[in-house]
Structures are given as C-alpha cells and as structure tokens.
Amino acid sequence: MLKFILRRILLEALPTLLILVTVTFFLIRLAPGGPFSAEIDVPPEVKAAIEAKYRLDQSLPAQYFGYLADLTRGDFGPSFKYKDFTVNDLVNKAMPVSFRLGVTAFIIAVILGVGAGVTAALRQNTWIDYSVMGVAMIGVVLPNFVLAPVLALIFAIWLKLLPAGGWDGGRAIYMVLPVAVLCQHYISVIARITRGSMIEVLGSPFIRTARAKGLPMRYIVRRHALKPAMLPVISYLGPAFVGIITGSVVVETFFGIPGIGQLFVNGALNRDYPMVLGLTILIGTLMIVFNAIVDIVYGLIDPRIRIK
Amino acid sequence: MITPRVPLLPPLPGLDEDLGLALQGRGLWTDARRRFLRNRAAVASLFVLGLIVLLCVAGSALSPNIFDEPDFAAMHAPPSLAGQHWFGTDNLGRDLFVRTLLGGRISLMVGALGATVAVLIGTLYGATAGFVGGKTDSVMMRFLEILASFPVMFLVILLMTFFGRELWLIFVAIGAVSWLDMARIVRGQTLSLKRKEFVEVAQVCGVSSFGIIRRHIVPNALGIVAVYATLLVPSMILFESFLSYLGLGVQEPMTSWGALLEQGAKSLEAAPWELAFPAGFLVTTLFCFNFIGDGLRDALDPKDR
C-alpha cells in the first residue's frame, strides 16, 4: 500500500506539478511583447517590484529556479492591478469564500446525488425511478450559466424570496442560489452513476445470498450493497471537485461573490498576469493534489487497484 | 497427417434467388441504422438539430436586419412577430433574431471543428499507442495522464490573457485538450482488436503497421468513435460558451450563444427575452446532441450484439 501511495505521489502528482509550473514559467516569457514590457500601463512602483521579483537582471536558469523557490514558499508576487496588494493578499481574502461555497456544494451534491441514485435503483422502472432520472438528464445537460440567470429571475426578481447576488459574509440566504447552481450538475451525474452501479451490485450473487438469508432490504443496502456501489462514485469525485472549482468561476461572476473565481476572471479581463498565473498554479496544484487523494482513497477501499 | 482440403462448395446458380433466400449481408452499420431509426427520441432530436443548423446557416436571410447594425429607435425592444424584430433587440438595439443565429453559427462551428480535431488526433494517437504497445504505449499514456490532470480551463484562460482573445486560439485550445478521452477509448478498442485473426493475417501478408492501423483498426473502432464524437460536440459548445460567457471568448461585434447569454443575464430584469432565446437554442441543441449520442450508443454498442 505504501508503495502504491508513494508511486502515485512521486511518479504522477509531482512530475505533473513540475510540468505545470515550467509551462507557465515559459508562457509568460513567450507572451507577445512580454508581460513585463510597456504594453500594459503599469505604475512605476509595481514595475520596479516586478523587475526585482522576477529577477529580470539574472540569467534564465537563475530566474527559473528563483521562481520555483518562490512558489514552494507560496509567494506569487505583486498584483498588476492593485498596486498596494500582492497576489497572496488578495488570494488569502478570497480563498475562504470560495472554499465555503465549494465545500457546501460538494457535500450537498454527494448526499443528494447518492440518495437519489440509491432511491431510483431500489425502485427501478417505477415512476419514481423515471422521474429521478428525467430530472437528472436535465441536470446533466443544463449549463450553469443558463441555470444561474434563470433561477435568479424566478427566485429573486419574480418571487423576491432570495437575493439575486452579493455575499454579505456568507449569510445563509445569500448562499442558497449559488450553491444550488453549483451543485445541480453534480447531483445529477452522481445520481446517474450511483443508480447504475447500485443496480449492478444488487444483481450480484452475494446480495442474493443475503436476501435468501432473510435479511431486511434496508440492512442489505446499508451493510452490503452501498460500499461496492460507491466505488465508481468515488472515482468521479476527483473530476467533480475540479468541475466545482471551475463552475464556481461562473457562479461567482454571476452572483458577485468575492471569491477566487471572480478574482481569476477579473485578472484575465484586466490582464493582471501575476494574478492569473498565480491562481492557475494554485488551482492546478489543488486539482492535482485532490485527484491524488481520491486515487489513494480508492486504492485503500478497493484492493484490486493497488496491484497493477 | 495431412488433412484433406475440403473443396469450397460452388454456389448453386439460381437456387438462392428462387427461394428468396439470398443472404442479405447485414453489417454493423445496416443493423445500427435500423436500431437508431427505431429510437424515437434520437430521430426527433436529429430532426430538430437539422432545423437548428439550417436556421443558423441560412436563417438570417429571412430577416432584413444586420447583426451589428443598431436600431436606435428600438433598444431593448420586446419580441414581436408583427414588427421587424422577431426576437426583440439587445441593449444597443441590435436585432436578436439575427444575432442568435449568428451566435449559433459560431457555436456550432466551434463544436464541429473542435470535435473533428479531437477525433483526428485522438483516434490516431490512441490507435498508435494501442497497436505499437510496449514502451511506446506506456510513454504515450503517461504523457496523456499528465495532460489530463492539467487544469485545462484555467490554462486556456491563461493563454487568452497572454495572447489576446482570438477565435482561432479558442479552436486550438479546445481541440488540443479534448482528444484525451478519445485517445483512451480508441486505445482500449485497439488493444482488443489487435489480437484478432484478421490483423494477424494482415501482418503475415506484410502490411505495414500504419497500413493496418488505417485499414483495419480505425474502421473497426469507428462505431465507438462516432458515439463519442457526438457527445464531444456539445461539450465543445459548452466550453466555448463558458469562455464567451466570462467575456474571454468571441469578441464584439461577433457573438456566440455564450456571449449572448452573458448579455442576457445582465439585462435579465428589463428584458428577459435576451436570455430566453439564446438559452433556448443552446439548451435545445445540447439536448439533441445528447439524445443522438445515446441513440447511437444503443445502436452501435458491440456489447448489445
């Protein structure tokens, strides 16, 4: 097992991270005119800070290793747009907001998705099954940037039940719509995956044995069927996490939530290079680490994965 | 011991035709077509999608308006069948009917082109990796895994930030990242195909590796490629819409469904139709592609045969 974990981290996660960082490093230098040239109007203080920061007076290898060293210390440098702030300051303020939004959506998606999937599987080919799967089909197809304005129109403008935007320190009422938009797609996908694998598991011989022993259905589902049925769902959690981060870009932009996603889009629109660069690396690292964790957890649960 | 050769039976002239027993070759594709046509949701989707494509390509000729010409007398005008602006107008008084269709043209083009690039690269890459096998295979697959764990969406936005927001960049970016799954699927197919006798025969006959891939592997993997390609198009359209929605995709005065949605979302309260029409078109298109993809999968899935 230890070997499996080490291999996953040393041979997969770390090289990927290194490549990501290297690619981004050379991308900045490829950008037309160079991001550090006069193409963008940068206040002189920032310019001086940038030149010092990126060691523009040193050789390329020195620049590269300096950049790596900064990153391992978690230092992303100054922002182009906000001259009194470093990227770190801004990210530190935005991170908890996005984290709260994302984690809430993630938990709700898993609970509701698994619940709906199991329900549909247990009542296969009844109207309950069909309606759950019908709603899930819509949820899979509907993009969040369509759903967000539609929900805002219905619940904020017509019914006036919920605020159409804003964050207000994360008060519950401000979180309802963003979380709903963020998690709907994942509820649907998880429900579909759960239903499929649950039906498969329920048809397997060991479940038949359990039923023949006269165990109550609820007990069988909880003690025997749920764990093997969860395997495909767990392997989907990696992509789902990535998707929720990406989706929060749309959600935060639409609802005006001061999180990482909005920071990222504003950075891209303002051509705030260090901001976009830092966030790409940060988010990339998060994704790679999370995928590695999911894989390791998967290996812990399912021994077949470890022995390749 | 030498087994005597059994002479092939000569065809009996006239008999098959007389009895109406002529063996009609029922290939995978004939079968698949029959099965697909029986799937009502898929056929209806195909029809609706055809209409949308036709409308997007030729529909703007129906309207006297031009996509980037503001009508200052009618800004935020509501839709009316009797008036000049069937879908209403946007904040600058530009006709939404024409713009929705133009946006559709861009969105569908991105979808189709992106999917084509992905299919071409993915199929060749996957077939090569699977067929050659060994070290080459594991290196190629490792490379794929590294690419797949990249934060693609964010890298694309990073590219857009550095190099400006160009339409071709979107194509390249989308095409470059979307072939990964395709490559994996085709590789899996190839691995099982290459143990088949007809591939062995081709090898014995001295057909080159590339020839075998082209003549035997790719055509046999085509079914699953077709299914996957149909499902790729909507995800390409979504990707482009996502970028345009954030203001990072297509630039004014050009437009796409994503860009229209972004504007519609801004004037939601005053002019909900600005959201409704592009959203309706986009969602309908996505549904159609999904149903067609499902229909194709049911029709072509080898497991079913």
Question: Describe it for me?
Answer:
The complex is a heterodimer of chains A (308) and B (305). In chain A, 78% of the residues lie in helices and 0% in strands. Chain A has 308 residues and is mostly helical. Chain A has a domain at 94-258: Orthogonal Bundle (MetI-like fold). The mean pLDDT of chain A is 82. Chain B is an all-alpha fold and 305 residues long. Chain A binds chain B through residues 12, 15-16, 19-20, 23-24, 27-28, 30-32, 35, 137, 140-143, 145-146, 148-150, 152-153, 157, 242, 246, 249-250, 253-254, 264-265, 267-269, 271, 273, 276-277, 279-280, 283-284, 287-288, 291, and chain B through 145-146, 149-151, 153-155, 157-164, 234, 238, 241-242, 245-248, 258, 261-262, 264-265, 268-269, 272, 275, 279, 282-283, 286-287, 290.
Low-confidence stretches of chain A: none
Shape of chain B: elongated
Strand content of chain B: under 5%
Largest interface: A-B, 48 and 39 residues
Secondary-structure element string of chain B: HHHHHHHHHHH
Tally of helical runs of chain B = 11
**Total number of β-strand segments of chain A?**
0
Low-confidence stretches of chain B: none
The fold-level CATH name of the domain at 94-258 in chain A is MetI-like fold
Distance between the termini of chain B: 39 Å
Radius of gyration of chain A: 24 Å
Nearest-angstrom radius of gyration of chain B? 25 Å
Q: Under the CATH scheme, which class of the domain at 94-258 in chain A? A: Mainly Alpha
Structural class assignment of chain B: mainly alpha
Instruction: Note the main sheet of chain B.
Output: none
Mean pLDDT, all residues of chain B: 79
How far is the first residue's CA from the last residue's CA of chain A?
Answer: 12 Å
